[in-house]
Amino acid sequence: MAEIYSDEYWMRRAMDLAMQAQVQGEIPVGALLVADNKIIAEGYNLPITGHDPTAHAEIVALRRGGAQLKNYRLLNTTLYVTLEPCVMCAGAMIHSRIQRLVYGASDMKTGAAGSLIDILRHPGMNHQIEITGGVLGQECSTMLSAFFKQRREQHKELKKLKK
Has 89 been labeled as part of a binding site? Predict the structure, then answer.
């Protein structure tokens, strides 16, 4: 009998993907699409290196999932992402018809799964998505905070060198 993996298991894989983004100088956000206890697609942030404002981890994973399944409807899938999705990503999730979203860190500034606004469960939407937030939330949040702290320090050093 195949082992059923937990949300924490999949979130750790998403965190590995986030680290790949960070290595490339991207904000460390990772996402993976899972169906029937198997990874269908993975993605991590690529807007900076790809010069593409839509290349968020979620969008990359959804696009790859559609290509893998040969269908734009990603029925009966779960999307795991290290950071609460923005409005753009939430809209893509609704259009793709994923069943469930599991995210790590909340995003009080742009979160569209309940922190700032709740697009995914808005009663006017034609599709509702089950949401589980805060899975390894502290670890995901710490990873993002460390990245932004390092980035601020790099900017300070650059300013010093220009003086």
Answer: yes
Considering its fold, how many domains does the chain have in total? 1
Q: What is the CATH number of the domain that holds 46?
A: 3.40.140.10
Dist. CA 69–CA 28, nearest whole Å: 26
26 catalytic per annotation: no
Task: Give the domain range for residue 142.
Answer: 7-162
The answer to whether residue 2 sits within a structural domain is: no
pTM of the model: 0.93
56 is in an annotated binding site: yes
| Burial (CB count within 10 angstroms: exposed 0-12, middle 13-18, buried 19+), residue 85 | buried
Ramachandran angles phi, psi of 151, nearest 5°: -65, -40
Query: Which is catalytic among the residues 8, 58, 130, 139?
Result: 58
- Distances from the Cα of 77 to the Cα of 9, 17, 83, 115, 152, angstroms: 16, 19, 18, 23, 37
Give me the residues paired with residue 80 across strands: 32, 102
pLDDT digits (tens, 9 = 90+) for 108-125: 999 999 999 999 999 999
